[in-house]
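Hey, quick one: can you model this chain's 3D structure?
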Amino acid sequence: DYQGKPVGGWHPWECLTLEQALTAATAGVAFAAGRREEGRVAPGLVADFTVLDRDIFTLPPPAKKECPTRGRKSDLKKSECHIHAKLQVRLKAIYRLRFEHTTVMLCRVLHVNRSTYYNFINKRPSKREVENQCLRKLLLEIYMKAKKRIGTRAFKIILLRDYGINVSEGRILRLLKSMTLPKMSTLKPRFKSNTSPVFSSDNLLKQEFNPKSPNQVWTTDFTYISIGPKCHVYLCAILDLYSRKCIAWKVSDKIDARLACDTLKMALNKRRPKEPIIFHSDQGSQFKAASFRKILDEHQLLASYSKPGYPYDNAVTEVFFKYLKQREINRRTYHSLHEVQLSCFEYIEQFYNNYNPHAANNGLTPPERNLPHENKTPFRRSFSGLPQPRAGPALRRRGDCRRRG
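Sure thing. Here's the predicted structure for all 405 residues.
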C-alpha cells in the first residue's frame, strides 16, 4: 500500500488533469477518512487530497497521453489546467469552474490561496491600466483616421501634435500589440545592379536629399499600377525634397514622354520658380526625350540622372512609391483609370501632403515645413472631411492622461 512517498520518482497527483483530480478528490475523501484507522492512508496528507488509496483509484503511468476530452469543446479548458500551470491560468480556471465546484475544493486542488483568488476577482484597475485604456481609444481613433497606414513613430508624433500627449514609442508599440491591430507588411525590394556601371550623364544630386530651402531640388519617377490582367496604368510624380511634398502627379494609360512633360508643366505652373532647380530622375527614355529636355532648358532646370540600375540615387521618390503601394494601392482592386485617379488623389492630396507627419521634417507635415518660407496664414489640417479633434487630455508628465490645470 502507498504510504505517502513518491513512487518511481514521480508524484501520483502530477499525472491527473483538473477534471480527474476533482473527481478523485470528491470520491476519495470519504474512503480515505474510513481507511485512516487502518493505516493505509497517511493522515497528514488527506486534507490536501494528494494521497488516495490504490484500491479506490488506480494511477495512470507517467507517460504523456493526449487528453480524451480534447475534442469536446466544453471540456477543453478544464482538461488542460493542472497544478503546475501559471498562477494566472489557475486563477482563471477557478473562476470558470466556480459554479460546478466549491471554491474551497478548487483552491485546494490547484494549490491557490483563497485570499489570492478573492483579490484576483475583486481587483480594481490600476491608474496605469486606466491611462492605457484612454491611450488605446486614441490610438484606435488615429488608426482608423489614417486608414491603417502609419506606424509607431507617426502615432507618437500625432498624439503630441493633435492631443498634447507625450508617450514613448515602446509604450505605443506594446499597446498596439495588445489591441492586435493588423500591421502593414514591409518587404525590402531587390535590385540588380551591374558592377562598375557606365555613367553617361551627370549626377548633380549625389544623394544629398536635404536641401536648405524649397524649390532647390525636385525628383521624379514612374510607377506601374495594375487595373486588370496584363493591364496597367502609370503614375508620374514630382517631389520637392525640402518638404517631401508631392507638388505634381498625373496618371495615364501610356508611359511616354508626354506624361512626363504634362506632369512637369503642372509643377512649374504651381511653383513658378525664379531660380535654377536641380531636376533629378533615372535614365529613362521619357526623361531624355527631346520634348522633355526642351522644357528643362526653357525654365532653367538642371537635369540630373541616377546611375543605370541604381535606384538609391533617387531613394526619396522610390520610398514615396513604396509607401503609396503599401498604404493604398495594394489594398484595393482597380478596374479603370478613373478609380486609380480617385485613389491617388485621396492618398496624395489628403493624407500624404496634409496629414502624415514626415520623419525628414522632424514630424511636421509639408505645409508646416514650408510655412517659414511663405507669407500665408497657418495651415489648418483636414482629412477626408472629418471634424477636427478637440483639445484632448494633455499630459503633466509622461503617460498621464489628465488635463492640465
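One thing worth noting: The mean pLDDT is 77.
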